[in-house]
Design a protein that fits this description.
Helix content is 30%, strand content 20%. It contains 10 helices and 16 strands. Strands 4, 5, 7, 9, 10, 11, 13, 14 and 15 form a 9-stranded mixed beta sheet that branches. Strands 8-16-12 form a 3-stranded antiparallel beta sheet. A two-stranded antiparallel sheet has the order 1-2. Strand 9, helix 5 and strand 10 form a beta-alpha-beta unit. Helix 3 packs parallel to helix 4. The longest helix has 26 residues. The two termini are 24 Å apart.
Length: 391
């Protein structure tokens, strides 16, 4: 945002005819027969001078004269403030959430609601130039609230296609899910699509049942914080960082220099604490006894069959199987599936997704890690082969 200030002064130096002179000129130009004199004394004049005809042009002159005279009495110049925006305004979809039936359904039918979780799970608006996205955390809460208000939605299916996201964002979504289950007592089934790793599995672990596609990838039970050392690149561009700070480690993880060993130890301690919370959540949800030494807790990815052997998923199947099982658990065998989407985000099948990534990433595909300072540094529950977020 740029604020431009322009001082506008009134032009008091310009020549403006005096109103009295305008009247005098008009009287002299008027017909002479309207003036009758009987003597030099003005009192002897018995006739009344008629009012002169005033043209529109004369009225305009008088108005402008008054305005200029008033402006000249202002002790200070007029200050005009202009706001100029250089950033494109993001487009956020604010349409209400509605039920989009898949197939034939009536208003009184029992239904199974499909809630899609796709892409990066962070507490930020996934909007940008020429793209209307949503905040994944806000969207998930809004859809759960909608399902809570509609008793005809007998069960919930979480259709998950994500490699994870922010530690706090994933924890919030997991907590919202548990509160929904406690308040409604409705069954929740999680279905892992292509990828259900990291924080996506963290969320899925709160469901009553986890079904993975035969080719799903899960795992990634680790924590990562993306930091970069741009010191050499900045030196090539003759850029030197000169931070002014109070506290030796307030800029811990800064990209303008290599990270000291002491700072690395502190950051790793934070990451390990977050991983302990992840492990505790898995052990609680899956009723497992985990010591922390299990090999799959090192962040590796797992196939669906490997995850089933480790009791991390309950079954291998497809989204239709998850919908059918959810209806069975809700004692609604004939329940019809509906997709909870924004009104303008039409859903034609059970696989319709809500886009939540800005399209400008496709317009400008060059993304150098560490250069985008608009991304806050974030600890992530995420399987991340592409380290472009959070740096």
């Amino acid at each position: 945002m740029i604020v431009m200030t322009e001082k506008v002064s009134t032009g008091c130096g310009s020549h403006v005819p005096h109103p009295g002179r305008l009247r005098e000129k008009r009287l002299l130009d008027g017909p002479s027969k309207s003036i009758s004199r009987r003597g030099d004394d003005p009192l002897e004049n018995k006739e009344v001078l008629p009012m002169p005809l005033v043209s529109d042009r004369c009225i305009h002159r008088i108005v402008w004269t008054l305005l200029l005279c008033v402006g000249c009495k202002i002790p200070q110049p007029i200050e005009v403030r202009t706001h100029v925006t250089t950033d494109p305004q993001p487009l956020k979809d604010t349409c209400p959430i509605v039920q989009m039936p898949i197939g034939v359904a009536t208003a009184c039918d029992a239904k199974v609601a499909i809630i899609d979780i796709d892409g990066l799970m962070v507490n930020a608006n996934q909007t940008g130039l020429m793209s209307a996205g949503t905040n994944p955390v806000e969207e998930f809460r809004a859809k759960l609230d909608y399902a809570r208000r509609h008793p005809e939605l007998k069960a919930i299916v979480l259709r998950i296609h994500s490699a994870g996201g922010g530690v706090t964002a994933c924890d919030i979504m997991h907590q919202d899910l548990k509160r929904f289950q406690a308040s409604t007592q409705r069954p929740v089934v999680a279905c892992l699509m292509d990828v259900g790793a990291g924080g996506a599995y963290y969320l899925a672990s709160g469901a009553d049942l986890i079904i993975a596609h035969p080719t799903s990838i899960t795992g990634g039970f680790g924590v990562i914080l993306n930091l970069y050392n741009l010191e050499d690149m900045m030196a090539q561009m003759n850029i030197i960082g000169v931070p002014v700070k109070a506290g030796d480690r307030v800029d811990m993880g800064t990209p303008i220099r290599s990270i000291p060993d002491e700072s690395r130890v502190l950051l790793e301690a934070v990451a390990e604490q977050f991983q302990d919370r992840f492990r505790a959540r898995i052990a609680e949800s899956r009723q497992l006894e985990l010591s922390g030494e299990e090999p799959f807790l090192d962040g590796r990815i797992l196939t669906a069959s490997q995850a089933r052997d480790l009791n991390l998923v309950d079954a291998i199947g497809y989204l239709d199987d998850a919908i059918a099982f959810a209806g069975t658990q809700a004692n609604a065998l004939s329940a019809q599936p509906v997709v909870l989407h924004r009104a303008r985000d039409q859903a034609q099948t059970i696989y319709s997704i809500t886009p939540n990534r800005p399209i400008q990433g496709d317009l400008l595909p060059i993304d150098v890690p560490g250069l985008s300072r608009s991304k806050l540094p974030t600890f992530l529950y995420m399987w991340q082969p592409d380290p472009t977020y959070g740096g």
